């Protein structure tokens, strides 16, 4: 259990409660549901027309830490098999930037800082985290369930003309993303908006959402 204090003086306690409900048991029987942590779904939306860079950005790959080479190679193979990335030839190129997660696993991100600088703006729709905390504090409920949508960005399809700008190179082969990439400045806003729209269409219970995290 962790406790934190925000600028307005509210105290927040965070912990994990292991609750096994009949609904969870039934979910686990669905075929193909969360087969493994690397599994990627596909959101049923139109291919997204995202802002395109105003000029070509080409950056060489950095030297990659030895510990990351095998995990990243395996990850790219898995993503290619699932159609998330594919081989390409593009004048754009950004370097892979592997990030080690707290559990020791690696996350495949690309350093899109240079690309972000020449990408047109997009109206942000992501809510302020502190405002969400204050909204939670105002509710009568004492217990909440949290849902973290796995690989949410990778489930959002991109339009063909938007893909070349996201190219990266690994082991002499150039790839690009067919889905929304991590590390690009507009990915959180686009992801938040699409998930918000999906929740509004359905019969979701009262909830709060922050990008791919949902509290009910």
Automatic annotation (TrEMBL):
Residues 80-216 form the Reverse transcriptase domain. Its EC number is 3.1.26.4. It is an enzyme of class 3 (hydrolase). Transmembrane segments: none annotated. Pfam families: RVT_1 (PF00078). GO terms for molecular function: RNA-DNA hybrid ribonuclease activity. It comes from the Eukaryota. Belongs to the beta type-B retroviral polymerase family. HERV class-II K(HML-2) pol subfamily. This is ribonuclease H. It comes from Hirundo rustica rustica.
